[in-house]
Amino acid sequence: MKNTKKAYGVDQYKDIILVDTLGTASVKDSLFKNSTRYKDMMIVPIEDVDAKFTMDAGTILKNDNKIPVFEAKVAKKVILHDQDKDLIMAENQVVSVDGVNGPFITVGSMTEIKTEGNWPTAYDN
Known about the structure:
The structure is a single chain. This protein is α+β, with helices and mostly antiparallel strands. The chain has a domain at 53-120. It is 14% helix and 30% strand. It has helices at 27-32, 76-79, 85-92, and strands at 2-7, 10-15, 54-62, 65-75, 104-108. The longest helix has 8 residues, at 85-92. 2% of the residues are buried. The mean pLDDT is 86.
């Protein structure tokens, strides 16, 4: 909210910031209730694969503002563990509009402000 104060024929702007909190709730309690499944969310859900998603969170500075960011990723070779090694190597080198570029399947970013994944929108269906 901006208030204008007239003084000596010059407008001065004064910023007023109101902060109000109605209450708080634990994310763990809100999303998971009495379940402990949050302890397993980093495990890649593929049979015979013992791997975890790499997860990170932090902040980046953008226009003098600290913006919270996150990233979760898993190597394609983990997902494609039962495929031919040459096919996995070719998949890791993909640079395409229709494919998942690079050696990881990623959502979020620790260097940019984004919550999208690196897969094409056609995969979202």
